[in-house]
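Hi support team,

I submitted a single chain yesterday and got back a structure, but I'm not sure I'm reading the token output correctly. Could someone confirm the output below corresponds to the sequence I sent? I've pasted both exactly as they appear in my results page.

Thanks,
R.
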Amino acid sequence: MKGVLGEKRFAEYQRATDPDYRALAQLTERYEVAPELANRAYDMKTEALRQARAVQANTALTEAQRQAALAAVASTSQKALAEILPP
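Hi R., thanks for writing in. Yes, this is the structure output for that exact sequence:
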């Protein structure tokens, strides 16, 4: 499917079929904020998940280090989200 749609369109398709993205899009509509905020928030979520998977896959980390790194990813993501979303 990616080969037919191309990189950009395939990413848009994936985003549109993700329930988390649909929820974000509904929130932006409900609270009358710019729709692109849903895209930015979704991109942040995707990046946080990528980072979390990398931490979990890192066998060089102890369990305590892994938990600390995951907490840091979550904290950073929450702060970044708070910066782009209205109160």
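A quick pointer for reading it: The chain has a mean pLDDT of 91. Let us know if anything else looks off.

Best,
Support desk
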